[in-house]
Amino acid sequence: GQIPMYLNINKKGSVLKYLAGSLILTLSFFNLAHAQTKSAWDRGSSLLALGLPALALGSTLQKADTTGTEQLALSVGTAYLSSLVLKGFVSSERPDHSDNQSFPSGHAAIAFSAVSFLEDRYPENFQTYKYYLYGAATLTALSRVKADKHRWSDVVAGGALGWVSAKIWTRPQYGGQFSLQSKPGSLSILWEKPLQ
Asked: Could you tell me the pTM of the whole model?
């Protein structure tokens, strides 16, 4: 079989470097969180919420995948903006009493959107790292609870929002997709798959 492109460690700009960076970021987070301070958990969650989309962006740029870059922007953007809209409608006080914008967690929405994007856009490459990446997204959500910024219901809702946002916007790079085509008096279901 063919080795997936990003596993070739000799390729300049390899996604493996981005994955290694994500792992280093996660390990750094554990060092920050070791002190068990709420501010360390808060900083760590922000680093992960920024690091996971950056990792996904690095993957699209390394593959010169402009469609993937657009899908990532739509996925993460939808997750983030949806979380802001919901925060405006649902007045839920944060556990630390800092404001009334606890539901849903935007950090969890962004993290899960980025990881779900990678899973859906590059399914053949994702399998090796899925536990690490979903673990990092889960750690983002856990850290929001440990930082006293959210309740479990907030981070579960944020994670689900991010996951759904990616499912809406993301298509496999080399996979196929169904579409509907209507003409007067008929409806057709089409399966399209780009040639590689």
From this structure: 0.77
